[in-house]
Amino acid sequence: xxxxxxxxxxxxxxxxxxxxxxxxxxxxVSSWLAWYQQKPGKAPDLLIYATSSLEDGVPSRFSGSGxxxxxxxxxxxxxxxxxxxxYCQQAHSFPWTFGQGTKVEIK
Amino acid sequence: xxxxxxxxxxxxQPGGSLRLSCVASGFIYSSHSMNWVRQAPGKGxxxxxxxRSSDGSIYYADSVKGRFTISRDDAKNSLYLQMNSLRxxxxxxxxxxxxYRYSFLNWGQGTLVTVSS
Lengths: 107, 117
Description:
The complex is a heterodimer. Chain A is mainly beta. Chain A is built from no helices and eleven strands. In chain A, strands 2, 4, 5, 6, 9, 10 and 11 form a seven-stranded mixed sheet that branches. In chain A, a hairpin with a 2-residue loop joins strand 7 and strand 8. Chain A is globular, with a radius of gyration of 13 Å. The relative contact order of chain A is 0.34. Chain B is mainly β. Chain B contains no helices and eleven strands. In chain B, strand 9 and strand 10 form a beta hairpin. The radius of gyration of chain B is 13 Å and the shape is globular. Classes of the chains: A mainly beta, B mainly beta. At the A-B interface, strand 4, strand 5 and strand 10 of A face strand 5 and strand 10 of B.
């Protein structure tokens, strides 16, 4: 199984900050890497699919990049509504797997 | 508007069974592969099962293989998860999710399964 490791586990940031979350796969996952945002008590929302494609309606301050085993989610200017937990997910091979999550908290 | 509505969760004893359902609307259901994803209380997300729209291929997480069965009824726009031999570690909110380019585009509100005596 492909293990997905996110870092950091949590980050404390202020509104307007640039936040970068990394996701490392235990083996190459081609471009089938997605990112989700989840707020407490809610289902996750898809932000980015296929490494860098922004889902419709997602603000352009979110961006994804990477290849092979190393991927990043960047929030260019953190907004109040962005405080949440973020997950990466690989779909290169079954079983599909998620990272453990990164909680973005208010500083 | 795309909607996915899960039902069938509840309290079940260890070793028991439960069948989850998910009714889809707002898109051509038969054209989309579907998934079940779960989240234990206070924990992260875990993919559970996938069923492909084109050929019915099915895949499971190792943790549920042999105990859970995913199925679909395209005439009823419905997805199912039959869960047998339930364990305490299966306690979670179960979401159905529509596949889009191997990601989970739309999610239901989730249904809570609690396995406890």
